[in-house]
Design brief:
359 residues, alpha/beta, TIM Barrel, 8-stranded parallel barrel, 15 helices
């Protein structure tokens, strides 16, 4: 199958009530692990790259790699997504290199560190959405700043993350403002802030409603039932992966991620895209440490990379199954981007319900 846009994939996920994991990649091994899991589960997939990943792997290498993965696994619909774009240029160059979807994160200014004003977020996100829709690409926006409700701080990831202490208002997306934001920007998906954060150190204890505000998702979905919601920073940081890393020389402090059951709860209330990066890193790193410890004379990179790919594949399989993504790949007829562009022009892809437009 050809590459699929985020909008078409999430429309299908909404129709059939499932969520789609969005796995971050930096290299070939991660890409193969994701696609083998998608093949095994017959699941569509979102593969995404941050600005840091694009700098690490280079745009041309990433584009060719996704081409190759689509050729090797032709039965799997693949959305290639730019994660946390910081300005128009980042988003437009991604589309030029074959990305079918981009995130314009206007919650922070172009430095990807300073919280932005609401007006700035609306203006730049609308501009990117308008340009992307001209060619049929999808756009994800973000309202609210990703960060911990426990500490009031964000954790930088690939150079992206708010600096300083954030207020409760910044850390939780306002449902009424979300309606206005989607109406004015015409985004295809909305990332919301509910207490999740990047990295492994998300929560100091198993999260409850005080530090993981799933009720915000439910309130937004009630007001925007046709808008696809996105949970960022949603790795579950499995205890078994922490234990493997620490058993073989690691020093990860005890930490807690977003429980899979809470993500499943979110899927029931409009969450269609779930971002996962830390879990994949941990799965691979645990195997690196284990092999280096058990076989200190080993120097062949393949002996480290193959087991790490196996571990990541298993993790991806678990998420496809848990989110209901499995079994949906063959149900999707991929629509070309030029046809998607026509649909935007004809007004057939409006994420805002008529009641919100009237308001």
């Amino acid at each position: 199958m050809a590459r699929i846009t985020l909008r078409q994939l999430l429309d299908h996920a909404a129709e059939y009530s499932y969520g789609v994991p969005a796995f971050n990649i930096n290299n070939m091994e991660q890409g193969i692990a994701i696609m083998e899991a998608a093949r095994d589960c017959e699941a569509p997939v979102i593969i995404q790259a941050s600005r840091g990943a694009r700098n690490y792997a280079h745009d041309i290498m990433l584009a060719r790699m996704i081409d190759a993965l689509c050729d090797i696994y032709p039965e799997i619909p693949v959305c290639m997504h730019q994660d946390h774009g910081n300005n128009e240029a980042t988003c437009m160059t991604a589309i030029r290199h074959g990305f079918t979807s981009v995130m314009m994160d206007g919650s922070l200014e172009a430095d990807a560190k300073s919280p932005a004003s609401y007006d700035y977020n609306v203006e730049i996100t609308e501009r990117v959405a308008r340009m992307a829709h001209w060619v049929g690409a999808s756009v994800e926006g973000e309202l609210g700043v990703l960060g911990s409700l426990e500490t009031g701080e964000s954790e930088a990831e690939d150079g992206h993350g708010a600096e300083g202490t954030l207020s409760q208002e910044q850390l939780l997306t306002d449902p009424d403002q979300a309606v206005d934001f989607v109406l004015r920007t015409k985004v295809d998906a909305l990332a919301i802030a509910c207490g999740t954060s990047h990295g492994a150190n998300k929560f100091s204890r198993k999260p409850d409603g005080d530090i993981l505000a799933m009720s915000v998702i439910e309130d937004i979905h009630q007001k925007l039932p046709n808008t696809h919601l996105v949970m960022h920073g949603s790795s579950s940081v499995p205890q078994e992966l922490q234990d493997i890393i620490n058993a073989f020389g690691g020093e990860m402090p005890q930490t807690f991620g977003v429980p899979v059951e809470e993500i499943v709860r979110g899927i029931k209330h409009g969450v269609r895209k779930i971002n996962i990066d830390t879990d994949c890193r941990m799965a691979m790193t645990g195997q690196f440490r284990k092999i280096a410890s058990e076989n200190p004379t080993e120097f062949d990179p393949r002996k480290f990379l193959k087991p790490s790919m196996d571990a990541m594949r298993e993790l991806c399989r678990d998420r496809f199954d848990a989110f209901g993504t499995s079994g949906n790949a063959s149900k999707i007829r991929v629509v070309p981007m030029d046809e998607m562009a026509d649909r935007y022009v004809e007004g057939l892809l409006d994420p805002v319900p008529s009641t919100a437009r009237a308001a």
